[in-house]
Each structure stands twice: as C-alpha cells, then as structure tokens.
Amino acid sequence: MALCSSMRAHLALLLCFCLLLSGVNGRSRKLYIVYLGDVKHGHPNDVIASHHDMLTTVLGSKEETLDSIIHNYKHGFSGFAAMLTEDQAKQLAELTEVISIEPSRSYTTMTTRSWDFLGLNHQTPSELLQRSNYGEDVIIGVIDTGIWPESRSFSDEGYGPVPSRWKGVCQVGEGWGSNNCSRKIIGARFYSAGVAEEELKIDYLSPRDANGHGTHTASTAAGSVVDAASFHGLGAGAARGGAPRARIAVYKAVWGSGRGAGAANTATLLAAIDDAIHDGVDVLSLSLASEENSLVPCTPFRRDRRRGQSLYYYGKNSTGSSFKPLAFGGLCTADSLNGTNVRGQVVLCASADSFPVALENVLNAGGSGLIFAEYTKHIIDATGDCGGIACVLVDLTTALQIGKYMVDASLSSSPVAMIEPARTITGKETLAPTIAAFSSRGPSIQYPEVIKPDIAAPGASILAAMKDAYIFGSGTSMATPHVSGIVALLKALHPNWSPAALKSAIMTTASVTDERDMPILAQGLPRKIADPFDYGAGHINPNRAADPGLIYDIDPNDYNKFFGCSFKKSVRCNATMLPGYHLNLPSISIPDLRQPITVSRTVTNVGEADAVYHAAIESPAGVKIDIEPSVLAFNATNKVNTFQVKLSPLWRLQGDYTFGSLTWYSGQKTVRIPIAVRMTIYDSYADVA
Asked: CA 20 to 30 Å from 480, out of 135, 290, 515, 648?
C-alpha cells in the first residue's frame, strides 16, 4: 500500500499550482499601458506627437520620452505603452487626459472532423457554407506566434486578387521575404519592441512561426482544403479551416519556440490590434490567455474518426511477449530516477513538470515506455515524437487505477504493461459535446455582471497544420479559431451586421444538449451537468446562427457607459457608470440580488418581416422572473422591440449562483439567452457570522 499512497501523494501535486508575484519599487521601470480614449486627431502622426508631448511633461525631456515609449496606439483608440517607474505612472494618472494606466500583463498560448461535427462539411456543403461562399474574401487577422507560409493549408491556388480595401503590409525579416505573402496570406507584421531578449533569440525575427501555435490556429480558422491530411495515419481526411476561402493577415505578437509555450504582453497585443484595425481586417482571432485564465471554453467533439492509444496492463496469469515490466517513477525528475532501475521498463510518471521534461528523464534512465498522468485529461491522447519509445498521456483517474493494479499485482508477481499503437476508430460511442476539463470557466471576477464565457466550441484533438505536417492539438487555443472561422462565414453572409449582432446570433442559437438530446456534461473534478459558467450560452451551432431570427445589438458607444473604468486604478471615472447587466447583451447576470431588479433588453428582427414571438421562462432556483411584454410583434415597419425582465428573490439568504434562461419562440425559431443569479444579503462571505 505504500506504493499506492506514494503515488497518490505525487499525483496530488498536479492539482495545485502556485503563482509567485514579485513586487517592484518606485524607482524600477516596467511596462505600462496608458489609455486616452478615442482618437482625437485626424492624422496618426498628430496622435503620436500628442503622446510625446504628454509624456514629456512627466519625464522632462524629449530624449527620455523617446527612450521610454515602446508602442503608440493611434487607429482604434489613443494611447501608448511606455517603460515607467511607479512614481512616473502615478504622475501620468493625475493628468486629466488619462483615462486609465495599468501595468502590461503577460499572456501565453494555451481538424479533420470538428467542422463536420459542427455541420460544416465541405463535401456536402451546408446552407451556411454555400451562402457565405466559404468565407470568400473575408479577412481574418490572426494575432499569434506567426505562420509557416509553406504549409499546404495556406496555398493560394484558385484565389483572385487581394481585396482592394486591404491596407496592410508584408513586413520582411529573418526567413521571411515579400514572396512569403500571397493571395492567401495577404499581409504580415511582427512586434518585437518590449519583448524579452531571451524570447527573441530563440525565434525568427520576422512573421515566420518557430513555435507552431500560430500556424495551427490560422489553419483551423481559415486553412484551405488539404486532402489526405493525418497525423501518422490518425484522423485521416480533408483538413480545412472553418472559412477555407477567407484571407489571412498575420500579426506576430507572441514569441518563443516550443509549441504551446509562446509569450506575449499587453503592449505588443494592443499594437497588433491597433494595426489590424488600420489594415482592414474583418475578424480578429486571438488564441491567448492571461496568467489568471483563458478565453474560450473547449469541447471534445464526437469524432467520426476517434483517436487514442490502447493501454493494457494485466496480472499474474497474463502472458505475451509485447508486455514490459511496469515501474512507478514518481515525479520522474532527473534526481528521482537517478539510481533506480527502470531500464527496459514502462514508467508511470505523476509529475507537475511538462511531458517533454518527464520524457527526457525517462529516456536518460533507459525506460522503454512512458505513461504520463495529466490533470483531468478527457481523452487518452496521442503524442508526437517520443524519442523512439512508446508513450501515452492519461488522466489522474486512469493513473490511480494503474497504481491500484500495480499494488495488487506486486503481491503475487510483477506488474506489466503494453502501450499499443494508436488507431482510428469509427462510430458514435462518445457523448459529445462535453466541456473539457482544461476549458475556461466563469464567473468573471472583474465583471461578474456579465456571464463569461460567451460560447463553447471544439477544442480537443484538433488536427491542423504544423510547418509542413499536421498534428493534433487541444486547448482553448484550438477552440478560439473555430469561433473565428464561423464569424468569418457569418460576416460574409451578413456584411453589415455589427460585432454585437454576430455575437448575439452565435449565442442565442447555441445548443445546451448533446447529439442525443441529453444535457451537455462538464469534465473536471467532479464531473457535472454544464451550466453557463462552463459553456456560456451553450455549444456553438453555426448553421442556426446564420438565421437567428432576433438579435441583441449594441451601439459601440454604449460600452463606455458600463466599462469606461477599469476595476484597477482609473482616474477619470464616470460617476453614473451603470451595472453591466443593463448592457444589451444576449445574457443576464445578477451577482448580488437582494431586492427586485428590472433590466431592459432590445431585440431587432432579422428574420421574416411579419413575426410574433412568445416568451418562455426557466427561472433560476429561488428567483421569480416576470417579462413585460411577454409577446413581441414585428412587421415591415416595426423591426425593433424592447422588453423588461424583472427578477425578484423568493428568499432572503446568502446563496450561490443558480441558472435559468429566457427563450423567445416563433414557430420553429427559438432565441435563447442564459440567466445567472446569486442571491445575497452581505457584501462578501466574510460578513457572514
């Protein structure tokens, strides 16, 4: 039992990670983002000059200003990134022109069948694919680690001229010439200012992708159709992006080699976004996460071709020449394996280190196979190059089962195991979609009055381009380009819709049940039925989103009434700032319901001119909801209606979130939004006696 106890102790290390934050004194410099609001000058050079003048009033000289400024933001908004001491940042914050100033944050990077699963099969095109012409000439800007232009996914064969509205550039650099841009990759930029030297020296100083992450995400969103793509024979089929006829604009703002481990900061990302606005992109795709959280929830999808590796281990009566002795390697650090005899054995590792580190240590120790335990891994994953030995990734539950077998087997014989090569299986044995354990979850700490995430999309086992080959990838990074590709299709179909309208169409048509009409499940500890903090409005349904019936639209200026002040220090705050639940979002979140609250929503009819919609309410537990009016009538002259939602607590208590929904229905058309409510008595749980 000591072996099993030891293993459990080691596996527990994977359940907790610590983030150490270091402070800085008032004299050391770090990167700050200064936000000044809307652009108030006609020419970008005038905007830059105003930034320099402002900073010079604090720093004292033009020379210091030029040395301090890293980026100027002059297209989508006015602001700049600069190296400042804490004292200098405080002085800037006192200026009336400054709306907010915050330290730059760090960010990291975190498909043959997924598009078929979403109903976008290119061989039997869906209505959305046909009507949008596969996203023809929509420009997707990918802010990531760059791109590998030689990949077949970025072939420009059959493409017409670059759209005349494009105003971007093809920035040359190391390993990248003007010839690397094409009618598919129509522009490319890179941003190295303010990036640590250790990240730059292991990467191409150009838009070329040494990491691989940007290539994978770009091909998922907008890759051209590539027949017979596979990963060593797994998942064989046609790889393509969601909008395979869309154009790609590359903005390399994430640096560092090693797939899935790129590094970025707020300053470079904002510079890329600012340029993308100027260049004329239609959709921006950012597969990034801050240190606190990731951005888009992921779902393992039912794969008509499902991949995996078979892992066998059996007891005293078992025979077979392919089985190898099975050893427990603990954390599988170099020190823990030093002096142990694992040569020729399959080693079980329960390590907080990355898989490549554990693999290197097992190889150095002479192991013949590796079973690597990862936190709540939903699928038994296939890996890439394992240095010539067999390897497989498993979740903690599977690892503990293996550990129990090892304890039982050791009582009468030696435990053995065999890792069988991965193979492709057809069928529908898997419940799908489900919310992956590694997925982003809510609620939002910064803005609890807005339900986050918005939507869930496929993000597990996505086959996409990696340099000249194709590999599987899983993570929120893989879910994001699925949404980007779908938005590109919708933008091609509805070019005049606002971003808020496109978002509304996606959210109000999402699915909350799986293929068998069962509630979507959320993986993790414990597994449970998913709720809006797991999947937002639900799992994305692109064909329904093409014709949503009603949309919840938002004027861009309305956001200033709600989010003009950061939750961190902001100097000029609107004293009449409204709670976020009053924004016309396709969701409602009330984080502190103490007495009845009424919120207003406005919907626009984008379906049949003459339509009547009726309200259907699923109230959160402990909450009474009233809708006025409960019937909305539309015609050719009346396309917009406003209604009130009154939420009343049924009890006086300090509770947790409960969930419900509001659905407008007209014939076969349904328009659903999620509702999250938490009843409270006190400002915080610390106030509870």
From this structure: 515
Are the C-beta atoms of 98 and 32 separated by less than 8 Å? no
**Which has the closest alpha carbon to 661: 603, 606, 618?**
618
d(CA 580, CA 577): 9
pLDDT in tens, 629-638: 999 999 999 9
Contacting residues for 182 by C-beta, under 8 A, at least 6 apart: 149, 154, 156, 159
147 beta partners: 208
**HSE toward the beta carbon, residue 583, CA cutoff 13 A:** 26
> Does the pLDDT of residue 234 top 60, yes or no?
no
| Domains of the chain, each with CATH number or no CATH | 29-104 (3.30.70.80), 108-293+437-548 (3.40.50.200), 308-423 (3.50.30.30), 551-687 (2.60.40.2310)
Question: To which residue do tokens 């004329």 refer?
Answer: 280
In sequence order, what are the residues at sequence separation of 6 or more whose Cβ sits closer than 8 angstroms to the Cβ of residue 537? 451, 454, 455, 506, 507, 508, 510, 586, 587, 672, 673, 674
Residue 491 phi/psi, 5-degree rounding, is: -65, -40
The DSSP string of 279-292 is HT-SEEEE-EEESS
Which DSSP string do the residues of 199-265 spell out, in sequence order?
HHTTS-SSSB-SSSHHHHHHHHHHPPPEEEEEETTEEEEEE--SSTT-EEEEEE--B-SSTT--EEE
* Candidate from 200-214, 279-293, 657-671 with smallest mean pLDDT: 279-293
Contacts of 428 (CB under 8 A, 6+ apart): 302, 304, 515
Token look-up 């309208």 returns 501
Enter the tokens of residue 320: 């077979």
Q: State the chain's maximal CA–CA distance in angstroms.
A: 83
The answer to whether 153 touches 224, Cβ cutoff 8 Å, is yes
Q: What is the pLDDT of residues 385-436, one digit of tens each?
A: 677 788 888 777 778 888 888 888 777 678 888 876 655 444 455 555 666 6
Question: In which element (H, E) is residue 392 found?
Answer: strand 390-395
pLDDT at 17: 27
Note the Cα 11 to chain centre separation in Å: 27
User: 504 pairs with which residues across the strands?
Assistant: none
Please compute, for residue 302, the number of CA atoms within 13 A of its CA located in the half-sphere on the CB side: 17
**Rounded to whole angstroms, how far apart are CA atoms 673 and 618?**
10
Altogether, the residues listed in the chain come to a count of 689
| Mean pLDDT along residues 107-116 | 53
Structure tokens at 519: 């509630």
The span from the CA of 232 to the CA of 386, in Å, is 13
Confirm if 25 and 86 have CB atoms less than 8 A apart.
Answer: yes
- DSSP letter for each residue of 616-629: EEEPPTTEEEEEES
Tell me the two tokens of residue 669: 């058309």
Angle at 484 between CA 382 and CA 165, to 5 degrees: 135
Mean pLDDT calculated for residue range 346-375: 83
Q: Does residue 140 contact residue 287 with C-beta atoms inside 8 Å?
A: no
Q: Is the pLDDT of residue 171 over 90?
A: yes
pLDDT tens digits along 591-622:
999 999 999 999 999 999 999 999 999 999 99
Mean pLDDT of the chain: 79
Cβ contact 65:56 at 8 Å: yes
